[in-house]
Amino acid sequence: MFSAQSNVIVGLEIGTSKVCAVVGEIGAGGAPNIIGVGQARSRGVRKGEISEPELAEEDIRNAIVEAEQMANVEIRNVYLGVTGNHVRGFNNRGVHPVVSADREITDEDVQDVIKNAKAINLPPESGIIHTIRQLFYVDGHHGIPNPVGMFGARMEVDVHVVQGNVNRLKNSIRAVKSLHLEVDEIIFNGLASSLAMLTNEQKELGALVIDMGGGTTEYCVYADGVIKHTGVLAVGGDHISNDLAYGLKVPLGRAEQLKFDHGSALVEESIRGRQIELPGEVGLPAKTINLEHLRRIISLRLAETFLLIEQEIAERGLLDYLRAGVFLCGGCARVPGIQRLLENTFMLTAQLGKMSAISGLSPALDQPEFATGIGLVKIGSLQHKRKTTGGFAENIKKSIAEFFRR
User: Fold this and answer.
1) 23: how many CB neighbours lie within 10 A of its CB?
2) Which of 120, 205, 347, 371 could bridge to 329 as Cys pair (CB 3.0-4.6 Å)?
3) Which residues contact 10 (CB under 8 A, 6 or more apart)?
4) pLDDT tens string for the chain (406 positions)?
5) Quick check: 79 and 72 in contact, CB under 8 A?
6) What is the Cα–Cα distance from 379 to 15, expressed in whole angstroms?
7) Residue 26 backbone dihedrals phi, psi, to 5 degrees
8) Closest of 82, 74, 72, 80 to residue 21, by C-alpha
9) What is the pTM of this model?
10) What is the distance between the alpha carbons of residues 75 and 233, in angstroms, rounded to a whole number?
């Protein structure tokens, strides 16, 4: 018999390769403990977005049921991860005059300046997923995390905005709601992954998190403890398989298996001339594959993806801020040699993702493809703490309803 618990947080990622539901239980100290994970192969998703709703709904249901059985709870609400090449991140600044007689900055002033920063003219089809405050300015004095209690005549705030196409976001929300589940909040996958992996010290030093899944690659830059940039590329592990199928002239299924069995991000001198013998199967003849050719295809696709991210971050002048280095998660983090390829591309230290400040099922915590789901649970646990303040639940309902009114 399942138990319904008010202190249970569920993160749901509807990915291109898999649907993943992660269940966390809020402990006495407010930190989440992972108590269940459910997975299903994803069949109705392309490049991180739902393309066949009926298949996607069935896969979501299977992942939810498996997570319920492992955690022995009934899942009613989820924090839903979203992505897609329509998702964009940019920075904006709000300005607010301090009008009180003594010029002391209050909480109301802070809320007003943030509200002004949110006043952004977006295309009609776009909606804001997140508005994340960065740092404040008071009379030109910058780098202030919280100006309440200070004195000044003019206050400014920088925020990072993540926005996406409303109709495309609705598709994911509707797929979940069709299963009689409520969506507590939608979260950008790249934000969730970064929160799962980075410590506060790494955020202060400056870090780049890359989450490379089956159909998309999300990335998130932190510096001085705050988010500086986010982005999405509609490229992932599936594109490597497609490249292999085309370049090696083999069916996609065989290309996928070759990637797992013989793939590497590096092309080493020691493999020159080595061959892979593929036995004949029903309808398919025996074939010989050049191992160097196979790995070069993988290496070139990965290097191109990382180079696109590196160029975008360099254009924004953020490379020099990445003192903690590069962190990689997602299914592609399992490709042998990918850490060294990252280091060669960014000329920075790189490491494969490990979850920070989380407890529970160790097999899940050790696997980089669970970073998004675990990050969604961490975000949910932070929101859970705010539920005691009035209006939180109602505000969440309003934010989800707003997507369906547009």
Assistant:
1) 29
2) 371
3) 21, 22, 23, 24, 67, 75, 77, 78, 79, 377, 380
4) 455 567 899 999 999 999 999 999 987 777 788 999 999 999 999 999 999 999 999 999 999 999 999 999 999 999 999 999 999 999 999 999 998 889 999 999 999 999 999 888 888 899 999 999 999 999 989 889 899 999 999 999 999 999 999 999 999 999 999 999 999 999 999 999 999 999 999 999 999 999 999 999 999 999 999 999 999 999 999 999 999 999 999 999 889 999 999 999 999 888 888 999 888 777 778 889 999 999 999 999 999 999 999 999 999 999 999 999 999 999 999 999 999 999 999 999 999 877 765 677 666 677 888 999 999 999 998 888 776 444 444 444 445 444 444 4
5) no
6) 18
7) -80, 120
8) 80
9) 0.90
10) 31
Q: Are 332 and 260 in contact (CB under 8 A)?
A: no
Q: 391-402 burial by CB neighbour count: b if 16+ within 10 A, else e?
A: eeeeebeebbee
Phi, psi of 108 (to 5 degrees): -65, -40
Question: What letter represents residue 352's amino acid?
Answer: L
Strands 325-329 and 8-14: unpaired
Looking at the DSSP bridge assignments, the partners of residue 13 are: 20, 81
Annotated domain spans of the chain: 88-165, 199-355
Tokens 């360099």 sit on residue: 314
Hey, what CATH class is 88-165 in?
A: alpha beta
Q: How far apart are the first and last CA of the chain?
A: 40
Residue listed under structure tokens 């590096």: 266
- By DSSP bridging, strand 207-212 and strand 359-360 are unpaired
State the Cα–Cα distance between residues 191 and 13, nearest whole angstrom: 13
Q: Residue 204: how many CB atoms within 10 A of its CB? A: 16
Burial 337-367 (b: 16+ CB within 10 A, else e): bbbebbeebbebebeebebbebebbeebbeb
Backbone phi, psi, residue 58, to 5°: -65, -40
Calpha distance 299→305 (Å, rounded): 10
Which CATH superfamily, name and number, covers 199-355? ATPase, nucleotide binding domain (3.30.420.40)
Pair of tokens at residue 328? 């990689």
Cα–Cα distance list, 151 to 114, 145, 157 (Å): 18, 15, 15
Dist CA 321 CA 270 (whole Å): 37
AA letter at 362 = S
Structure tokens at 273: 């001339």
Token pair 């598709």 is found at 171
